[in-house]
Queue: 2 jobs
Job 1
Amino acid sequence: MKMAHTEAQSLRQYIGPAERFFFDRNASACVADLAGGTVLGGRLQELADKSVLVATGDQLTTALALVELDGIARRLTILPPDADPDHFAAIIAGADIDAAVVDRSSTARAAFDLPVCVTCATQIVAAGRLPVVSRATEWVMLTSGTTGVPKMVVHRLAGLTAAFRGRAVDAAVTWGTFYDIRRYGGLQIFLRAVLGGVSLILSSAGEPMADHLARLGRHGATHLLGTPTHWRRALMSPAIRKISPRYVRLSGEIADQAILDNLHNAFPQAVVSHAYASTEAGVAFEVRDGRAGFPAEFVGRTRDGVEMKVLDGSLRIRSPRAASRYIGADAVLADRDGFVDTGDVVELHGNRYSFAGRRGGIINIGGLKVHPEEVEAVINRHPQVRMSLVRPKASPITGSIVIADVVLKSAAEGAACELGRVKGDILKLCREALPRHKVPAAISFVPTLDVAATGKLARRYG
Amino acid sequence: MSVKLTIMHQMEQIAREHGKILTPLRDDLVLLDSGLDSLGFAVLVARLEDKLGIDPFTASEDALFPVTFGDFVKVYENGAH
C-alpha cells in the first residue's frame, strides 16, 4: 500500500501562501491560515484515522473542515443539507462512522451520539503540532436518487479531481456557486477552487437571491456554477446586473435550450457551459457550444480517459473519475466491464444526442429526485383511489414538476364538488406524508391508465 | 374571475400550502421578493395552466421569466386574449 500513500495528494497540500478566501453570507476565511491553523478547536488529532461524518450546518464550515480533515481521517462522509434525520442511524452504521464534525448551527447534533464530536468554527485559530498526512482518505457522497436511505458512494480525491487536476492555474479566477458543495456538482467547484488556489464564494441557506448576487458581484466572481433551476431564479432578479461572469456553468440537471439562450443573452461575453455528471459516474463531459444535448462524437471513443456508450437507450460511462463502489448497498455500481449506467435515456437526432428523461421515470425537480412510485403509494392510500400514475411535467422554473393522473374506484363519484373534495383530500395526504417537492402540483382524474404488457403502469420518459 | 385575481388567489393558496408568507402583491413587486421560492413558482405555473389553459413560458422557446408581479400578470393577460 506504500505506493498508494505516496501517490495520494491531500487538500492540505494545495493550501498555498496565496491571499484567497472562502466566503459565505456571514463570514470569510483566509485559506492560507489553515497551513498552521485549525477550525476544529485543535482536535484534529482525535479525528485521525476515524470515519468522520461532516455534518456542519453551513458550507463555509464544511469547506474548511474538509481541507483540514482530508489526508487525516480514514473516511469523510459528507451529509447533504436536506438529509433526513430518520436515515442518520443507517448512514452512521453503514459508513462505520465513529466521529462527527458539527457546528453551532447543526440542528441534529444530538442525534449522532458518537464517541467523538468536534465543533467546527469559521474562525481559523493557530494550532499546535499538526498531524502528519498519512493516508488517502475515502470520500463518501450521498445520492438523492433513491427511496429510503440514500446510497453511499465512495470516491477518492484522485478521482474527484481528475477532471481538472494538473491544468494550468489561472489566478485571476474567482469561483462562485449557487450549488451546495455537499452535492457532487458543487463539490467539484469547491475542489477546483482549492486545487486552483483561488477564492470561492459559497451560497448560504435562506439568503435572498438579490443579496447573493450582490455578494457575488462585490467579490468579483468570474466563474459561476448553478443548476438550471438556480440560473432561472437568478435571471428573475433585477440584481442579475451586478454580476458579470466570464464562465457560466450549469450542472445537476439537464440544461434545456431556453436556459442556455437566456444565459447567453444575459452574459454575451461569457462561455456558457453545461456539464454532465453523476455522483456515481463522476464528471463525464462538458458542452461549450451553447446547445442543449451533446455531440454524437462524444460517444464511442475515449476523451480524457472517459468512455461513453449507449446501451438499451441509456448513457453508460467508464471513467477514472467514477466512484469505486457503494457502501453497504447490494447494488453494484458498475457492470462487469466497468461501465456505470447513468439511467439517463438519450436519443440521437442527426449528429446530436438529447436527453429524454430518466429510466424508471425518476423525476428531477430542480436537482431533487422523485420516484413516482413513492408518490403513487401515498395517493393510493385514499379509499376512493383505484390507481394513480405520477409523472413529470416540463416546468419553466424547475425543469420538471410532479403531476398525477388518478383513476377513482367509482364512476358515481363524478360530481364536480365531490371531485374537488377528493382532490383536496389526496393533496392533504401527500402534504402530510411527503416533502414539498414530491407533492403533485396538479391532479387530473382520468377514466383509465395504460398498462404495459408486463402488467406494470406504462411510464413514458420525460 | 380576472386573470390577475386568479393569479393572486393561486399565489396565496400556494404560499399557504408551502408555509410561506406572501408579500402584498403590488405590480412593481419583484417576484423573488414575493415569498414564493422556485418550487412555489413551478407549482404556480402548473396550476395556472390548469385554471387558465395556458403556459406562456413552456409554450415559447425562450420566454424569459418576468421580474415583477405586474409583468407576470401581463404575460398571462396577453396569452389569454
Note: Chain A has twelve helices and 28 strands.
Job 2
Amino acid sequence: MSTAIDQPRQRPLLVANDLRKHFPLKGKLFGKKSVVQAVDDISFEVHKGETLGIVGESGCGKSTTARLLLHLIPPDAGEVVFDGKAVAKPDGITPNALYRQMQMVFQDSYASLNPRLSIAQSIAFGPIVQGVPRKEALDRAVSLLERVGLAPSIYANRYPHELSGGQRQRVNISRALAFEPKLLVLDEAVSALDKSVEAQVLNLLGEIKSAFDLTYVFISHDLSVVRYISDRVMVMYLGKVVEIGPVDAIYRAPRHPYTQALLAAMPSMSPRRRTEKAPLSGDPPNPIDPPSGCRFRTRCPFAAPVCAEKPPRLVTQAGEDPSHRAACHLYDPVAAHPRAQEVRHAQPLSA
Amino acid sequence: MLSPFPPDPAEDLNTTTSHGTANTAPLVSVRDLHVRFATRAGSIAAVNGVSFDVLPGRVLSILGESGSGKSVTMRAIAGILPKRTTTIEGSIGFGGTNLVGLPESQMRSIRGAQIAMIFQEPMTALDPVFTVGSQIAESVVRHEGISWTEARRRALDLLELVQIPSAARRMKAYPHEMSGGMRQRAMIALALACKPDLLLADEPTTALDVTVQIQIVLLLRELQRELGMAVMFVTHDVGVAAEIADELAVMYAGRFVEHGPAVDVIEKPLHPYTAGLLASTVHGAERGAVLQPIPGMPPDLTRMPPGCAFAPRCPYAVEACRAAVPQSVAMDTQTVACHRQADGSPLGPLG
C-alpha cells in the first residue's frame, strides 16, 4: 500500500520546500504590526499513490497549507514542486497547468458549487474553460456522475440545493475528477457529513483512488478518519510540522508530546473506559505572535529552558524507522534536553 | 472543589440514585411528544411520538444525525421553539407541571432557575455588550431576588467552579475577549447560576478542538456529579456520548429507536439503525477496509413513510415494517422500536 516506504528513491509527486505564509493584521496605531504566522517554513513530500493525512487543531495552518499546495494563495517564501517542476517559477509549471493535475475538494459542499448551474454543467464547467469541446465535457460529466454513484438520469439536470450534503460532496468529487488529475487535496471533505454518509463517501474515495490511480492529501481534524484513510500522517501545531511518519508509527508510538496529547484527548468510545484526565489544559494559543522556540512549550508537560531558546528540528531516532520524524528537543541529542533520557528507545511518554 | 451553593440535604439522595430505581419520581416525564413545524414546503414532522423519563441526577444522552429531532425534542422541553410556526402535542412533565401549553410568563420563571440550557455556539447565550460577570449576576438577581453585591460574589464563585483561570479578572471580560473554550465555560457558569435541576446541553462540545472538547466534557461530568443535577446531552458523536451518558437514546426521523444504559446500547445495539450507525463510525475500523455504511438517506420529514421510518434503508425489513410504526418494547435493559425484534423472531444483538 505504502509506495513511499518501499521505493524511497522514486521522485515524489509533490514536494513542499520551506513553505511560509504570514498574514499581516491591520497595524495598531503605535507599535509593531502583528502577523498571523499561519504556515512557517514547512517541508514535506507526497509520494505517488499514497495518502498523506494532515491533522491538527484550528489555527494550526492545515488549510493554509492546502491552499499553498494548489497555489490558490502565493507563498511568502519557499516553493511547491509538482512532478519535478516548480510551481509558478520561470522554467516550472504554471498554476493553470497545475490545476489540471491537482484538484481540491472543500468542506462546504454547497458553497463549492455555483447555485445557478445544474450538476452536469458544474462538472463540465472547468474542462470547457480549459478548452475541451462542450459536448465532450458534458458527456464526461455524465459518466463521472455514474462513477460516483449518482444516476445521471436523475441528477444531471438538478441544481445543488436539490441535493443532500453527501450527494453534493459526490458532485464535488466528480467535478475534481473532470480534469483527470493526478492528485486530490481533500480539505475536511467529509467533516460536515453525518457519520452514515461519511462512511459512504470514504468508501467512494477509496474506490476512485485505485480506479483513477490517484494520490491524496487528506486534511482533517478527525483523528479516526485520518487513521483510517492515510498511509502517512503529518501533525501540525501553530503553523509548524511537529511530527510526520507512517500512520501506524504515529498512532501506536507517537513521539511528540503534542501528538501524544492529541491522541489521548480522543473520546474512548466505551463508557467502561472513560477518560479520567484531560491531557492538556487551556486552548491552543493564538497564531499571532506564537511562543518563541518550540511553539508547543506553553502547554507541554516536558518544557525546559532549551525549548524557549530555539525551535526544534524534525529529527529521526537512531535504530527507528527513518521516515518517522518529530520536532522535539527531547529527541535531538544536540539540544541536550534535561529529560531526554526518559524517552530513549521511543517509549511512550507519560507526564 | 467547593460548591458555591448552600448544601442541600436532598441532594445526596439524588446523586446516589441508581439506574431504574422504581421509587424515585422522574424529574422529566415526556409522553407521546409530537412537534411539527409549518413551512412553505409543508408541515415538517420533526418529532413523532417520543416518550421517556429523566431521573434526578442522571445523564441522558440523545444520539442522532442531523434532522433526527434530537435538538427539537430538547428545545420543546426548554420551551424555546418559535410559537407561531410550531405545533406541540403530548405532554412534558417537569416536577409535576406539564410544560406543554404553559403560559410564557410561568415558563420564564422555570427556564433559567430550574431548567438551564447550553448550546454549541456560546455567543447564542452570551450577550456581546455586557461583561461575563454582570450577565451571570443578572440571572441570579432576576431569579433569586438577592442583592447585586451578593450576586456578583456568586458569579465569581461560578467562574471558579467552571475552572476559568484568574476568575476575578475574567469577571470584567467581554465574551469576545475570551477564547472558544473559555467562552464555553462562561456559558456553563451562566447556565448553572441558579443551580438548575435540569441542564439541557445541545452539542456543547461539537465546535471545539479535540483537546478542548475533552476538557469541557470532563468539566460537565464533574459538575453534574457535584451538583447532582440531571443532564440531557444531545450529540451526534458516539464517542462524546460514551464519555458522559448514563443512559443513551438513539433518535431517527423524530422517534426513539432505542433507549437504555449507555454501555448496553453501545456494546449490544438491538436496533438495526443503531448497529448501522456504530458500524459506519470509522473509529477502530481496519485501515483501508471497506466500511459498512447505511445505504440511502433519512426520510423526507414532510412525507414520512407509513411504517418504520428506517425500513427503506434496513437490511432486515419485512412487509410488516412498511405497514405500521413499531412500538417500543422492553428487551433486557433496553427498549427498542423494531418489528423484527418484537415479532418473536429476535435478531439478537446487532453489529
Note: The radius of gyration of chain B is 21 Å.
